[in-house]
Specification:
There is one protein chain. With 736 residues, the chain is mainly β. The protein is 2% helix and 46% strand. The protein has one helix and 59 strands. Strands 1, 2, 4, 6, 7 and 9 form a six-stranded mixed sheet that branches. Strands 22-29-28-25-26 form a five-stranded mixed sheet, with no helix packed on it. Strands 43, 44, 45, 46 and 47 form a five-stranded antiparallel sheet that branches. A hairpin with a 2-residue loop joins strand 36 and strand 37. The longest helix is centred in the first third of the chain and has 17 residues. The protein is globular and about 95 Å long. The protein starts with 6 loop residues before the first helix and ends with a strand. The relative contact order is 0.07.
Length: 736
Amino acid sequence: MRTRRPAALFVLLFSASLLLAILSGCRGSALQPQDAADPAPQGQRPTLPRLPAPASLTREASTINYQFFHPASSPYGVVPKQNVDSMNSSFAVFSPGSVSPGPAYACYEFFNRGAVNGSDTIYFDWLSPPPQTGQFWVALANFSLNRWDWHPGPAAGASLDISAGHADYVAPDGCLYVIVLLQDGPPCSLRYLLLGDNPSTVTLQATPASDSIELETTLSAAAYLYGLTSSSIDWDLDGDGTFELIAANTSIMPALYSTPGVYEPAVRYNLEEGGSLQASTTVTVYPFGNTGPSAFLQADVSSGNAPLKVELDASASSDFDTEDPLEYSWDLDGDGEFELHTGQQPQASVTLGLAGMNTLRVRVSDVEGFTATAQLDVEVLQGFRKELITGSNNANADFSLANIGLQGGLPALAASQDGQQALLYFRAGSENGAGFLSPVEVMPGHSVYDPRLAEVEGNPACAYKAPGQARYMRAEDADGAAWADSVLIESGLSQIGNLAVIGGKPAVACAHQNGNIYYFRSLDALGTVWASGSIAATVPSELSLGLPRLDSVSGGPPKLYFGARGYKGLVQDLGTFVCKAEDVQGSSFSQPERLLDIYSFYIAVAHSGNDDYLVAADRWHPLDGLFFRRGFSNSDVWGPAQNLDNSSGAGKSFDVVVFENRPLVAFTKADAWDGPPRLYLQHAADNLASSWHAPMAIDVSEEISEYCRMLRTPAGTPLLVYRSLAEQSLVAVRYE
């Protein structure tokens, strides 16, 4: 993983390399080598300017203006990314040097590619005269693999072939990213960027597309031909499959329809190279005085756990002929067949038991038999089952979760019990978190606070607070049946963060009242000897710190997240920060980077590939909600902050995991300032977390304490644990 250098250092080094390149006369065909961390290039890289590393240029960061590198404009403002699926009718204007010295670029995203085969081709349709050879470059990019390769742009009218060797450019989400770059020259407008075996297309449109008898409409055809030439145009006006107008050679055709019905007129372009391309459209002709109905459908819920009962309402459907009664038919299983008929009753209900996205439809019919349909999607999450965790019997216990075991392991829990002065260790009976076994009493009779559980060398281990100390202990077996003596980490610390394994050795981060966050890492893999702590982050002494969150992905350098609160003069300063280590051991950390302008005492982080999902809560304003940010490419670039909808009043306790390739957030939420908290789940609607479903209550009748924790089990499903006031026990919620 690359770490981000300070911006000033980047500009300095970049400017120096640019100056050396100019002095050495390297402008022209000379090539700069790729970064050492990049794979060997398949094509070529432009000489000047030197582009940002792939980890720094992602689809969310593509609007950033780099020194000597700036984006193209578009009809919708400065948006250099155009999302396309084979064809996009909008265009981007490339104006090198108009914003700052250097080239202009745009990042195009092709959805649902699945794979790239040897016959795939990229076509460029320039609205203006195309750029000259040597000014135009194209890159294929896979940001997940930190890889991109540059190719000289094709000449006017030509295309860029994508060989089978580029199949690895398709990202895990099925997207292919293409970067178009103009180094210099006059402004150029790129109208289309097409991808496919044969991107040539024909379209047909009717205006108007529906009306009563004696309908006069105009059929308009358009052909987008790449490397092909049309020889003639044929027309089938009545849609019977026979082209009665041969070689009409016009792309606009008037048509008259005197009989009620649904017609599918078609146009056919015959090609000089052989074969043809054709398109059709739909024209609906109603009986005299009948305009046909319009359908509208809504549901009382958009998502929920299985089994999910959904109430459907189509009463907003209408017909211009108000005297026509409407009848309703329903497709409730998504197979396209309208199996339920409710006559003139516009409501229906269905109970969905299948997890996933369910498409529900209504078909509205008038007295003449003309119909209209409407549909909506309802997402069903897997059902959940609640289970008491035996032996806890103390709603005041603090606890943490972890998956323990080198071969996938089992969910486990460590809880402290203030009343009994003991540390309890629980282990689930299966990989989805079912059947927690009776607890093992670890260190009975000792004061143990804030246990932090993790797997260390295949066995459970725990860092915790004792009076005036931070301590560590590890079980002697994978089941946690017997534990070794505890080891002192440090004395005089105020807040202990989570326990993590950094570079193969256990490590913790602790907050101190002096405004410093200290990083401790064991000298051996088992945690028997700990080094003296080093300062990982420093904030002004007047700031109070939250629990630091220590994190590492796939053995990479650790990252440290924390919240801080204080004052700059009379102005309150709130922040949530991250700082990154320069190596996998955490020998030194970068300066803190501000992620949010809120103070979050606790921070939750989850991962999907090279992306991070961070959730924080504004603890300084308890009625405020949860904030979410997505970090791309190992958090070298962060997406915009989101305040999760309908989470106002949340923030006492929360956690996040990746479930079904999307972030899932659990949180407690009080409906009033002093009201009892309830437990809610909120799932992102897509893997980009660009939108979220409404929060779902686990059980609105149950009063719980402020604490909830969640993990993704070895079975791939979420396991949620919370403290129930009603049961005076820890409760597990597992998905089935």
